C-alpha cells in the first residue's frame, strides 16, 4: 500500500468519525464535506457495485448517527436533512429488482427509526 493510499484512508476514516460522533457539532461543513467527498469517491469508480456500496455506507453512517441519543440533537437533525443525497444516488444506481428492494428496505428503516428517535424533539 502506498503512502498516498494510506493517507487517503486515514482521511476517509477521520471524516467518517467526525460525522458519526459529531466531534465538531457546530461545524456543519464537516458533514457537507464528507458527503461531497463520498460522492466524488463513488463517481471515481467505474464499478457500479462499488458506487452503490459507498453510497450505502454513507446512508448507514448518517442513519446510525441520527439514531444515537448521545449525539447533539441539532447534528442528528442535520444528518436527517442530508441523508437524501446518498439515498437518491443509491436509488439512481439500482438496476435490478433486488437492488430496488434493498433501497426500499433502507428507506423504510429510515422512516421508522427517524420517527422513533427524533419524534417529539
Structure description:
The protein is mainly α and 121 residues long. The chain has one domain (28-118). It contains six helices and no strands. The chain has helices at residues 3-20, 29-44, 48-66, 73-82, 84-93, 97-118. Helix 1 crosses helix 2 and helix 3 (48-66) runs antiparallel to helix 5 (84-93).
State the helix count. 6
Q: In whole angstroms, how far apart are the ends? A: 46 Å
User: Which class of secondary structure composition applies to the elements?
Assistant: mainly alpha
Give the mean pLDDT: 94
Percent helix among the residues? over 70%
According to DSSP, the number of beta strands is 0
Q: How are the SSEs placed, and which strands pair?
A:
Blueprint lengths: L2 H18 L8 H16 L3 H19 L6 H10 L1 H10 L3 H22 L3
Helix pairs in contact: 1-2, 2-3, 3-4, 3-5
How would you summarize what this structure contains?
This protein is mainly alpha-helical. The protein contains 6 helices and no strands.
What features would you highlight for this structure?
single chain; 121 residues; mainly alpha
